[in-house]
Specification:
The protein is an alpha+beta fold. Helix content is about 30%, strand content about 25%. The protein is built from five helices and ten strands, in the order βαββββαββαααβββ. A hairpin with a 2-residue loop joins strand 2 and strand 3. The protein starts with 6 loop residues before the first strand and ends in a 15-residue tail after the last strand.
Length: about 220
């Protein structure tokens, strides 16, 4: 997708700092990460996909002026732009060829809240217990079975478990915590539309399709 290079101005410097922190975490998992930017009205949504979690991460920010924008860019270049001297103002990097996931975003509307989601403390505890279980099971593997394939199998077994009485996979909670979304004491909600589930917090959302993100043939949709 080709768009003219333009500048965006976030509502304040704190918005820029929070967005920069999100991008830095994405790059920690993938140095070549790309993000899709969508702006409409006075809001900017930034979509990313941290490897191994099999989820989409969404960080939103308020804009000073209404802007229409839809482009995929390098997360690293966007982070560099945010680190400039302009404070809350930054230049949108040149577009890049987007990865397959960037063409399969959740729908804008139709979300409804679901019951059965545990509290933040319980979810953080479940992630800690899962990490400990993975380490224990990995250490118990005999030398001949200590392979990437075997570790992946253990990971799939653990992180595909669902949370509370919901269908939300534990890997979505793990992603939310790893990206700084799932902080102690914050309100959280689980939303659903079609095959999509969304773990929403004040710091960002984690979205997952119940049948996975790979190999989908879905018409791209806009998200606001």
């Amino acid at each position: 997708m080709s768009v003219p290079v333009q500048s965006l101005h976030l509502a304040d410097a704190r918005e820029a700092e929070d967005l920069a922190a999100f991008l830095a975490r994405l790059i920690h998992y993938d140095r070549a990460a790309a993000v899709r930017l969508q702006a409409g009205g006075g809001a900017l949504a930034v979509f990313g996909r941290p490897p191994s979690f099999e989820v989409l991460a969404i960080r939103t920010a308020r804009l000073d002026d209404p802007v229409e924008l839809d482009v995929t860019v390098s997360a690293g270049e966007l982070l560099e732009s945010l680190g400039g001297e302009g404070g809350a103002e930054f230049t949108v990097p040149a577009p890049v060829t987007g990865p397959p996931w960037a063409g399969v975003l959740p729908p804008r509307g139709g979300w409804r809240e679901l019951a059965g989601l545990p509290g933040v403390t319980a979810m953080r505890g479940a992630v800690a217990a899962a990490v400990a279980e993975f380490r224990t099971r990995d250490e118990q593997l005999p030398a001949e079975r200590r392979t990437r394939a075997e570790r992946d199998r253990i990971g799939r077994d653990i992180w595909s478990r669902t949370v509370g009485t919901t269908g939300l996979p534990l890997r979505a909670v793990h992603a939310a915590q790893s990206l700084g979304f799932l902080r102690p004491g914050v309100p959280v909600a689980l939303l659903s539309t079609g095959a999509w589930l969304r773990l929403r917090t004040p710091f960002g959302s984690i979205v997952v399709r119940t049948n996975g993100l790979g190999g989908l043939t879905v018409t791209p949709t806009r998200h606001g």
